[in-house]
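Researcher: Go.
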Amino acid sequence: MEIEYSESQCAPKDRRTDALGDLRVLPDEILCAVLVYLTPRDVARLSCVSSVMYIICNEEPLWMSLCLSNLNGQLKYTGSWKKTALDQLNLPNEYQETCIKPMHFDGFNSLFLLRRHYRCYTTLAGFSFDDGNVERRKDLSLEDFRREFDVKKPVLLSGLADTWPAKHTWTIDQLLLKYGDTAFKISQKSARKISMKFKDYVSYMQIQHDEDPLYIFDEKFGEVAPGLLNDYKVPHLFQEDYFDILDREKRPAFRWLIIGPERSGASWHVDPALTSAWNTLLCGRKRWALYPPGRVPLGVTVHVNEEDGDVNIETPSSLQWWLDFYPLLADEDKPIECTQLPGETIFVPSGWWHCVLNLETTVAVTQNFVNSTNFEFVCLDMAPGYQHKGVCRAGLLALDEGRYEDAKKVTLSAKVSLSNSDLTRKEKRIKFCEPVEEPNSGKAATWTSISHNVHDQEFSYDINFLEMFLDKGRDHYNSLWSSSNCIGQREMREWLWKLWVEKPGLRNLIWKGACLALNAGKWSECITEICTFHKLSFPTDDERLPVGMGSNPVYLISDHAIKLYVEGGLEASLHALGSELEFYNMLCKVDSPLKNHIPGVLASGILFIENGSYKIEPWDGKGVPNVIDSCNLIRKKCLEVDFPFGVGSKRHFEFRKAGIDISESISSSECSRIWPYIVTKRCKGKTFADLRDTLSWEDTLRLASFLGEQLHNLHLLPFPSLNASAFPYSEEEIKYLCGNGSVTDKLSIPTEWDFFIRTLTRRKKDVSSRLTKWGDPIPSFLIDKVDEYIPDDFAKFLNIFEDGKVGKPCSWIHSDIMDDNIHMEPSCVSHCPTEHTLDADAMHNSYVNGYHDGGGEVTSWRPSHILDFSDLSIGDPICDLIPIHLDVFRGDPNLLKRFLDSYRLPLARKISQHVSVDSDSKFGRLSYITMCYCILHEENILGAIFSIWRELRTAKSWEEVEDTVWGDLNKYSGFC
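Model: Structure:
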């Protein structure tokens, strides 16, 4: 569509007032911003309302947003964004818009639309001047690079790509010949995952006129086009990368293929986790603008969430910034600039703001990295809290008055004078999301601007300065994890542990990073106190860091293991230890064979700080420790049971937690310096997680049989009476947590199932929003259908009938048998030390480096112990199959079959005079029940499913997913 504006000697009447009615008070930019939230059909209808609405509703940038926000998958551009969006609706031919004559609209003008139109059609041929702010160097040695530039300033390097095949083969024409049918990921503002075949993207580039063109920015290019990885190599200056110690699937995104047309680019940002980056250009020209850390560019706002430290940057597109904001800058406020030419590599240091504009069609490759110079900054950025994240990006603007005064006293930077006009614009560029109570709402909902005077003070990007702004009260293990962090919470812990084990020469540096990210110094003090109290060996240097990626700090010291319970806050920790101690008590009471495959308990208690000193109160799970009495965490009636923080109380706690916001479940500040702990005998050997890739198939089958046998023993173990009267909830609390009219109120349900059903009912209420938040790789099509799949009646789901008979067994469940919670020891070993000759050092080396002695090698491993019973619960034993099948077996049906052959217990029961569980009803399918548990799980189980079975990302129904993952369970009859 074309729109022509005619000129007349007489000024035409302004048609905007009549055409927009009451909406005329809104600026055009607000109207356009609102329209992107409508559906394409509604926008098309709205365009018929008036002439002005017709103009606004036919803007290509609007239809680009509509198209991308309603697409999830591959995109094929069909000449215009409106046509592409309408093609997605599969409209009949008679409804497709036909070519019409240009339309004339006198009496309407819009500076906003004119500027946007200009950005769509401007050319950048003369936009490449280079003042030479960025130094250009050739043949730079690693020593000179570290001394002059690393974490100091950017540099343009030539010659690093001279020997790459990519220098000659990464042109659009040659890439098109080789990878035309390969789909690459597209970078755009929509949260949707969008890709395009390269041949379709090239066609798009040739005909598009977008103000912010689509940009290939693909971190998975090495997987979809592995040949590209052979065309370049990491330059010698950047080969040190501490993230490469992680397995590929756990490593955060670090390399990207970048292809884009003129006017495309990357808007202002700081690279994730304060990593450094190199970017090599193979084709075209790029214009770069950079600011040092802490200096927020004009027009950019930094949002930092107080709850989880999530960082969000609000910024114009790179083209808009250069056209609309750059001309407003005084010379002294302009960024460092350069024009990058083909074959040149630019280095961007940690924490530096940068913006890139493609002056013509470009092809480039970039990688982010963590080395010894920026390691501490990366660890700092992933520490819990929010203020340090704001300071790293926005400098002293992120501070309130009190913290700013403290900063002035310690910073060693030179003083500089800032003009009042500079202060005015800078004060508006840092925002924190503060929890503000609205009427009838307890949720944080308001953005509040933090501003202050920043006179005569220069920001210092120094780790000793920046760590001042860490929130020492926040604990890494139970604080909310920011979605903007480049790596998960558990992966962060595993990363530091692997570095500690495999790079002993860097331990001083790694310890500093662990103190920043994990508060490792505090946990080390706690462990020392426990060792002193129980007269245990103190940690060696090898043992100073918590091991692995567990959800609580665990230390392996000599022949014992110490675990501090911190995840979820004090109340959750007490229930975790209390349930575990109750479980061990039951094991010994009935002399279960399972006790031979669980580490023996040597000690347990409560560590706390009182009057600035550490103290310990031993606790075996019975009664309430004195230090806990004052925290008001348990009802008086609960004291009538032997284990007041045992599994019964834990079930009620989990039920309550399922109905409230997670932040409310964390204990009060006066209880935040109390840590339950347990000391167990240390197992020799290795975890299955460490051995998975080296085990023989026979050993893996033996493991499956072992798990079946031990789960048989676990699920036969009698569980304590769950007396509901001992843990009462009022009717008002039940209605709040479960809602009115719960089906469980109409039946006589055994206590052990009552809260289980109520918890499932509560989780179903927000299942769609929870899955949407988790997002990829869960297909959005299936998320839309999840409410239809999950039952409303969980009593029927569990085959509970009016007389109280239940068609499901109930038992203790471990809930977390994963590859790092299974221990294995060597067998059939030549020249291997015997159990009696192992000393502490040998046991440590066996855990870390493999189990060998001299020339002997391990030829076989046998499973020996199941670890970590802190997630114990009472419920459906099927729940234990979920982590075993998905994490331990990785979906292998042969291992599941071997497990079930050894398990030999019924997973469902037939009840006389009632419909049998093997009827045609979906409630009779074990696969259906298990799939529902996966969907309702508080952890992202579905993410694992769609990662293992990638073909299910195109599944048409939940039944298809169910049958693929759990269908084999329907063949299992069990043994009564």
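Model: The longest strand covers residues 601-610.
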